[in-house]
Amino acid sequence: MKNTFTTFEAAAYCNTTMTSIARWIKAGKLKSYKTPGGHHRIIRENLFDFMERHNIPIPERLGPIRKKILIVDDDTEVREHLISFLSDDRYNFDVTIAKNGYEAGIKVMQIKPDVLILDLMMPNVNGFEVCERIKNDPLTQNIKIIVLTAYDDPATVNKAYSKGADKMLFKPVAMEEILKEINLLLHKSY
To answer: Distance between CA atoms of 122 and 33, rounded to whole angstroms?
Structure first.
């Protein structure tokens, strides 16, 4: 599967001209990088994101877009259950795990997930702090956050939403419910 495209290829996939691609790159609408020879190259993920934002159909021959999910929970059993379910090829997700809030911060910057499934009660950096940091950073503020917690009291719910949570789910929760909420949040983001 091809991971980088020339401006000519991007123009063909977007059904437009190379001039339009160059204009979008110059305006900062389409992310690219330059080769040592000065030619623009567009990473697959950036081209797909651009095409989705502008309702440009993505040709089937380019393959499906895989959304990135980051699961952050200090409970091994919860992490394994979630990754086992969400990694199923039918859902088309790239799933990564973090065992605590500190590791979550590193992985958020590395992989730029589309959705974060976040436990609140973790040692050191808790879920509230992770949520707040992500939503206050312009580079990560658009990441959708599903808080998955056993604490369903009003104070916890209010605090999580005030820190930027997009959705609250309470343990134990059916995997199908998590999947439904992920899809709803992903659909709203474009």
So the answer is: 38
Helix (H, G, I), strand (E, B) or coil at 70: strand
What's this model's pTM, rounded to 2 decimal places?
A: 0.68
Nearest 10 degrees: Cα torsion 46, 49, 54, 57: 100
Tell me the C-alpha to C-alpha distance, in Å, between residue 162 and each of 14, 140, 143, 155, 159. Answer: 39, 17, 16, 10, 5
CB 146 within 8 A of CB 167: yes
**Beta bridge partners of residue 69, listed in sequence order:** 95, 115
How many other C-beta atoms can be found within 10 angstroms of the C-beta atom of residue 32? 23
Give pLDDT, residue 88.
84
> Would you state the pLDDT for residue 190?
40
For residues 8 and 184, give the distance between their C-alpha atoms in angstroms, rounded to a whole number. 34
DSSP 76-91: HHHHHHHHHHHTSGGG
Each residue's pLDDT tens digit, 124-162: 888 899 999 999 999 899 999 999 988 888 999 999 999
pLDDT of residue 126: 85
Assign domain 67-188 to its CATH architecture. Answer: 3-Layer(aba) Sandwich (3.40)
Residues 6 or more apart whose Cβ sits within 8 Å of residue 122 = 72, 73, 74, 100, 101
- Architecture (CATH level 2) of domain 4-62: Orthogonal Bundle (1.10)
In whole angstroms, what is the distance from residue 87 CA to residue 83 CA? 6
